[in-house]
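Appendix B. Raw example, untouched.
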Amino acid sequence: SKPRETVVISVSPEDVIVQGRVVAKVTDILEGKEASLDPLAFRLAELKENIVGPATMSVADSQEVTILADKSVPFIVVRMVMSACTEEGYENVSLAVIQKATQVATN
């Protein structure tokens, strides 16, 4: 059986990155800039077309996205990225929050 295709979206404090390609700036999303998430939607649609060929229609039923978000990213940004995914027809969206390595205070 084919391994499940999962699209990975990373949200750093600065950028939204899909499969290694920067598609949006976190500041633009926070400022509510019109169309700031359009490149994300476009990229998701593009990936979906690449994944879904006639032979892999079953993959379309389990379109998965994993969002790796830095802990410092405001949740509103993550929520907007998640809704962009569901609007593009990705049903399974999982979220992982990346904790920063904690600094040990020295006396």
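End of appendix B.
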